[in-house]
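Hi R.,

Here's the input for the C2E complex you asked about:
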Amino acid sequence: MNASGWTNRCPKNPGAAHFEIVRSSVGHDVADRALAALAQRLARELPQTELVARLGTVEFGLVVSDPSDPSVDAAVAHLQSLLAKPIAVEGREVVLSGSIGIVRADKQYKAGVEILRDAAVAADHARAARATGHARFREPMRARAVEAQRMESDLRHALEAGDQLSLSYQPIVHLEDGKLAGFEALARWRHPERGLVPAADFIEVAEQTGLVIPLGLTVLERACAQLAAWPKSTPLGVPFFVSVNLSARQLGHPTLVDDVSRVIEQTGADPRRIKLEITESAVMADASAAVDILRRLKALGVGLAVDDFGTGYSSLSYLTRLPVDSLKIDQSFIAAIHGSVESRGVVRVVTELGRLLRLETIAEGVETAGDLEILRILACDLGQGFLFSRPLDPEDATSIIATGKVERRKTL
Ligand code: C2E
Ligand code: MG
Ligand code: MG
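And here is the predicted structure with C2E in place:
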C-alpha cells in the first residue's frame, strides 16, 4: 500500500489513541505481540542505510542526512507501507497506525538523545496534524512542544485544584417549534493567567497526554449530577437530555463502560436522559472495536450520538451496525448551507440517511434565521447554535428549563 493509502486509513487518528482502541479490542497480549512483530518486520525489511528509532508506542524517528532529498520520501513511504500491512497474531489481523518524525543528523547535536528528542517532537507534530502521518523537524516545533508541555502541567494542576474547570450548557432545540430538547455539556477552563482557554486547544492537549481520561470523568460526573438536580421535564411536558462528549482516547479506555455505569449509579441520573457524543473520526478509527464498545454503553441505557458527522469518512456498512441514536451534522456544512450547493446537498443527504436509519438528526452551528429555514425544509429534527443560545452557565440553563422554550436571538 502506498503512503496516501496509509493516511486515508486513519484520517483524524492520533496514533496512541488508536493503539489503545486496538488494545481494548484485541486484548493487551495480542496488541503487544503485534507491536513486537512490527518491530521485527522493520528490523528485517528496512535497508541498513536508514536509521529508524521507535520513540513511543507507535511513533518512529527517521534520521537522515538531508531531509529534502527525494529519497527521504521513498523511505517514508516504505516505512509507512511496512506499518500499514496487517500483522497476523493468533489468527487475528491487527493494523497499527503510526507517525514518523524526520530529523537531520546535524553537527549541532551533541548527543544521540537530542536527535531523538527532536524526532519525537516532529512525530508528535505529525500525529497532531493528522494529515500525512509524517513531519520533518523544524525549529519552531520545539517552541510549540515547550508550550504544549506547559499547558499539560497547568491542566494537570487545574484537574487537581478543580475550581478552574467548569461546564457550560448549550441548549439544543426542536427545530419545528423551538421547544427545548436538551443541552450539550461543554468543558470550560479558566486559566489564572491566560483567562478562558478555547476548549479545542486544551482538549487536544488532554487527548495527547492522556489527561482526557480524568478530565472526561470529571465532566461526566458533573454533567450527570447537574442532570439529576434538574427537573425531569420542562413545564411544557417535554423531557430533555444532557449530552457529554467522549474523546477517542476515552472510547479506547478499558474502564470506560464501568466508569459510566458507576457515575450513573452514584449521581442517580436517568441514563435515558444522558447522550454520549463520540466524533465520527473516533468511531471510524477502528469501527469494529467501536461497535463493541458502543453496544456495551448502549446496554447501560444511555443514548449515543455521532458528533461532527460528515467529516470522518464513515463507512456506510458500519453506520448501519452502530447502535447510535443521533447524527450531529458538522457545523462546517451548516456554515456553508447558503453559499455552497455541495454543503446543502450533504445536509440533505444526512437528514435523509437519518430518516432511513431511524436516527435523529441534529444540526450544529445554527447561526442565522436563513440556516434555520433551510434546516426546517430539510426536516432536520434538532438544532444547536448561536441563533438559539451560546453555551450557558448552569443558572442560566436552569432559567431556560423553567420556560421550556428557547427564544431566538436577534443578534449573535
Ligand atoms: P463539539 O462537541 O462539536 O461542540 C460544539 C462546539 O461548537 C462548541 O465549542 C460550541 O461552543 C461551538 N458552537 C456552538 N454553536 C455554535 C455556532 O453557532 N457557531 C459556532 N461557530 N460555534 C458554535 P467549544 O465549547 O469551544 O468546544 C469545541 C470542541 O471541544 C467540542 O466540539 C468538543 O469536540 C470539544 N470538547 C468540549 N468539551 C469537551 C469535553 O468535555 N470532552 C471532550 N472530549 N471534548 C470536549
Ligand atoms: Mg459535541
Ligand atoms: Mg460537534
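One thing worth noting: The CA atoms of residues 14 and 127 lie 5 Å apart.

Cheers,
M.
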